[in-house]
Each structure stands twice: as structure tokens, then as C-alpha cells.
Amino acid sequence: MQEITKGANVSLTALGEDSGSVVVSLGWSSTSGSGDADVSVLLVGADGKVRGENDFYFYNNPAAADGSVQLLGKTPTGNGDEDRISVDLTAIPEDVARIVVAASQYGSARFGDLDDLRMTVSDRSGEPLVGFSIEDAGAETAFIFGELYRRGEEWKFRAVGQGYESGLAGLATDFGIEVLDETEPGGAADGDRGPTGPAAAGPATGSAQPSAGTGGGAAAAATSGVTGSGAAAGEAPAAAPAPAVPAQRAGRGARTTKKKVTLPKVAGKSLAENDSWRRARLFPAPTLKSDKEREVRATSVLLSVMAEVPEFGRRLTAGFGAPAGRMQTFTEVSLPHGDTPRRPDGVIRVERAGKLWTALLETKTNGNALKQEQVQEYVDIAARRGYEAVITLSNDVALEGAAVVNVKIDGRRKHKVSLWHLSWAEVAHQAQMLIHHEGVGNAAHAWLLQELLAYLRHDQSGCQGFQNMGPAWVPVRRGIEDETLGIGDERAVAVVESWERLIRQVCLRVGGELGQKALPVQRARRGSAPGARRAEAAEALCRDGRLCAEMRIDGTSSVIAVTADLRTGKIRTSAEVPAPEGSYPLSSAKRLVRMLAEAPADLHVETLVESGHGPRGTLERLRPEPGDLLPGNGAQLTGFRLSLIKGMGSTRGNAESGFIRSVDDAVDRFYHGVLAHVGAFEGRPGRRG
Predict the structure, then answer these.
(1) What is the pLDDT of residues 435-491, one digit of tens each?
(2) C-alpha distances in angstroms, 404 versus 180, 401, 568?
(3) What is the spatial distance between Cα 476 and Cα 357, in angstroms, rounded to a whole number?
(4) What residues does 640 pair with on adjacent strands?
(5) What are the pLDDT digits (tens) for 566-602?
(6) Would residue 126 be called left, alpha or beta, if left means φ above 0 and alpha means ψ between -120 and 50 degrees?
(7) Which three-class secondary structure state does DSSP give residue 344?
């Protein structure tokens, strides 16, 4: 991979033979765990402006209809988060001169609060081509990381590193996107304001000209608050003046002209005579009796829906380097391999412009493990036949986006085969996001996805996701109970890895349900390796008997902490909410208790003070006397910690009495019963999906 500096540019064609489709990754980390940013992509013409409102891709408009741009969402990395974007350069319209990749923050967050800001461009096989690190971020609330631009018949990458103190609104305005003022008549409600499309009236009075030598469109205007330097002179197309409209905070509700179908979250009243009647399903699951039957049925069901619902098929394959095109899927295909043909569970083929992208699929259900030798054979077959990828699909959840089995890739082969992993939990997450939040092309597609989701959730399908803490769970738990587990025991590391997989799956499920991004928070020293972090967590498990994790749900200002205490058999879920600025302590306490009117009575509330410990009590006791939360001795109140405690399942699986189910239930109860009620406690409007 080639490293370049701010302002430099490089030809993608010169870096790799397979650069017609690329994956752009934006990464960052935060030692506090509260840092986050939203990615956006703009398709810009030669005049430095978007051609229309659908040239702006962000959280509410995550994919182009032709599949040329698709936001793939966030994945946790060793030190933080990584947001990935699939870009099919062969599908970008001819009148698009540049593809601008940016990110923005909200509220009082600044990019200077984040560490390890970085942009990487990889080819469709996942091989990194070029990287760029940003070292000078400060007060900016929006940042252009880099851009892909045409130069003749080839595409090039430029490291921009240009910041805006006016946030997404200032950035969008510079590229011709109208930003509604919250006081404008007919404007959107709180939380739904934002970029609404290209400004129709042309440049406004007082608009600033781009600085000499800067990238087109990103004007160094005082009204936009640009603080970084532009791109290298002589490379960017000429830019038109940027309209100087008021740079209001860009909210979560940009209007688009796309008509998408989503299914209602509340089902209509059933015509059944009684509750024992079951709805007819397109994909029945109760008759499945063996693991082989489950694998064959699950593979066929998934692949058929992928081929028939383009949005869903692209969503699952774009991150693996597949182009946007006509997709066909096959099951139980026989491929030659020595004296005995091999039969992968499935084959995915995508055709675009006369070229084929092919992936072999190996499926496991019901918690069965992938076999290393079997996956190795498929990688070898794919290399010989010129296929691009091998995809493994199972209930296991990959960590840091890595494969879950180790295979040898022969570097002497000219043709590279990439190995990817997909979990059934991720499949269900993407289906849920489309049918309930983002929408698909027509009602039939939405119904197909709903039937797929019903199948995946059926107990007999074997596709419920990660459901076993592994063979080390029982001996580790017993070792903690009888105090015989020694520090350095490798079984503790295995339990920590299973715990991380569980938390990742909880995030996928909660995010799909809410239509929000949910990710584990990694609090690690800068530059530390994931293995070192897990070893440290395993040592803490042996010493204290606790598994700890944090997760952040977009739309909330708090981080949810989850602690499983194996000594007491209790799970604690908690979050801290800061007190509103300028509010009297008693007013803050009364307001909090009032907002928690529907919360569980056994909720623990603790007052946070600048030093020491504040008063605490259950919500049941505090409801008649909120003043009991006021700190004594004149201590300064800074916020409140809210906690729920429940019993822990005793088995390692996902049964009603299992540990995995108990963690799922604890997070659900805490979010819906507590955190959802205090989103506006700090006096800021909630962010909406």
C-alpha cells in the first residue's frame, strides 16, 4: 500500500490492476469512547456542484439506484471504528468529474477530539492501494478526507484533508446543496432539517470565490468556516462560486425524490379466529430435521432473495468487491477438484459490462463450525478458475472484519482470491434495515425480505446468529466461582473473544430494530493491537470475575455499559447522562425523574459529582422525593448514572436460561425502558433516522 500526504494525488490504475471497483474506508478512534462521525459522499460535476439532490449520499440516502455508490456502514476495528463505502467507478455517470468523500460530527463534537483519522482505498479484493492519515484536525465539525476524480480515461485519488467549522451544512452548501434554516416557513421539524437538494436559485449575494489552488467547490470562505488547505493546484477542475446560505446544523432528514417501500412496524389486525393459527410462510422451517437440511434450505432461501431483490443482493456483496450488475445465484454446484469434484453450498455471479464477478459460498447453520480444510479447497478452486472471492457464512461473528478461518493464499498466483466472512446476524440486520427503515424498490421486494427475516428468526432454521459461548465458558465460569482460575489461562482469552462476538451481535440486532448505527466502543491505547487488548481483558476477567463492554447507539448521547459479573451471577446495564448546562440541581433532578415516569421501578439512579460519590437510590424511592438526589456539602452536580441489574443465565447458549439470551434481554430492557426516555434530557433535540 502506498502512503501519501495531504494534497498529493496518485493514479489508481497505476496502483492495481483491479481498481474499477474500490472500497473507501474512513477510520478513527476515541479514547473516551464517545467519538463518532457520519460519512457522506457527493458526486460533483465539472462546475464543482452536485447535479441533483440524489448525488448526495448519507445516512438517509445510503445507496445509488444503479449501485455505483453504497454506504456499507461501520465496523469495529482494533482501536476504534471504520466506515466503509463501495464505489463502482465503472458505473459512475460520465458527467461526474469528482467523488468527494467526507465525514461530519454533530453537537459540540470536533474532529480534533478523534485520534487516528485515516482514509484508505482498497481494490475489490480488499487489497489496500493507498492510504492517507490526517494529523492536523482541530475545531472542525466536518472534514473532506479525500476525493476520487477523473483524469482522462483513468481515475485518480487525491488526499484533501480539508475541514469545516460549520459542519455538514457548510460542506453541503459549498457543493450546491440547499440547507433549510430552522426558522424558514415550511421547514422541517427539529431533527429533520438538513440538506434538501441543489440550490435552485444559483449563487447568493456575498458568496465567496474558491481560493487559488484549492479543490473545486470547496471554497475557503469565511461563511463556510473552512480551516484546512485545499488540494494541489493544477489538478482539480475549475469550480463555480459557492452560494453563501446560512450554515444551519444539518439534521437527519434530507428530502429525496426516491420513492421507497417500507413495511409498517405494527402489523395489521389478524383475521385468525384465535392466536393458535399460524400465518402461511413462503419459506417453511418446522419440517427441517437435520443440519444438512438446514444448510441446504438456508442457502437456497438466501441466494434466491439476493437475486430477486437487487438492493439486498448489492448490500450483502458490495463490501466484498462485487460490482453493481445483474446477479444470478446457484446452489449445490459441482466443480472439478482432482479425482473428486467439490460441491460448494452456493455460487454468486454478477455481470456488468460483459465482465463476471464470481464468489463461492460455504454455509454453516445451527452453530456448526467452518472447516479449515474445506474452505482451503474452495480458495484453491476459486484461484484456478479465476473466481474473485470465497464467502463463508455461519452463526459466528467475525472480529475486526477478519475471516474466521485461516487459509493459505498462494502469492505466486497471478489471480488473487479474497476470503470474506458473513454472519447470519448481519444478513438479518441488513434485511431489517431495508424493510423497516431504508426501503426497497417495490412492495413485493419488501414482502420477500419480510419472509426471509421470518425464516431466519425461526427456531428450526438454525440461522439465529451467535448462540454459544464456546467450550471454554463452563470451565472458566467454574474457575471464577471456586477461585481456581489463574491469570494467564488461555481459556479466559477464548471467553473474552466470545464476549466480543456477542456484543457485536447485540449491536447488529439493536441497530436493525432501531434503524440506527450501533457499535461496540473500543477503549484502547493508541496503536495497541487487538490481541493485547483481549489479553488485558482476560487478565481482568481472571482477577475480578467480570466481563465488561460498552456500546454506542446513534441518536443517543450516552454510552451503554454492560457488565457481566460471573461471581454474583448479575448483569448490570448502565449509562451516564450529563446534567443540562445552566440548570439548577433540583430542576435537573425533577426533570430526570419526570422523564423516567415509564421506566422500571427498580432502576438505580446515582448522582455524579466532580469528586467523590453522590446520593443514590431506586427510582421507586426517588419518585416522590427527587430532591434526595441532590449532593450535599456544596458538591457540584455533573450528571446522573442510570443502572439496571438482572440475573444472568447459567448455561453458555441462547436458550431461555442461557447467558446469551440474558445479555440480549438486559440491553433491550435498558434501552427501551430507560435510555429511550432520556434522549432529550440535555436539552438538545434527538437525532432521528
Answers:
(1) 888 888 889 999 999 999 999 999 899 998 888 898 999 999 999 999 899 888 999
(2) 46, 9, 32
(3) 45
(4) 577, 607
(5) 999 999 999 998 888 878 889 889 999 999 999 999 9
(6) left
(7) coil
> What is the DSSP track for 505-563?
HHHHHHHHHHTS-EEE-----TT--HHHHHHHHHHHHHHH-EEEEEEEETT-SSEEEEE
Determine if the pTM surpasses 0.90: no
Please tell me the distance from the alpha carbon of residue 90 to that of residue 422, in angstroms, as a whole number: 26
Residue located via cell numbers 473545486: 216
Give yes or no for a contact between 169 and 247, defined as CB atoms under 8 angstroms apart: yes
Amino acid at 410: D
Q: What letter does residue 46 receive in the DSSP assignment?
A: T
The three cell numbers locating residue 586: 433540583
The phi, psi pair for 568, rounded to 5°, reads -95, -15
Residue whose C-alpha cell reads 438446514 in the numeric block: 294
Q: Which amino acid, one-letter code, is at 107? A: G
Q: Which candidate, 203, 195, 248, 241, places its Cα nearest to that of 225? A: 248
Q: Which helix (H) or strand (E) holds 423?
A: strand 418-423
- Give residue 570's identity as a one-letter amino acid code: K
Give the burial class of 8: count Cβ atoms within 10 A of its Cβ; 0-12 exposed, 13-18 middle, 19 or more buried. Answer: middle
- Read off φ and ψ for residue 77, nearest 5 degrees: -120, -175
- Comparing CA positions, the residue from 138, 103, 153, 118 lying closest to residue 4 is 118
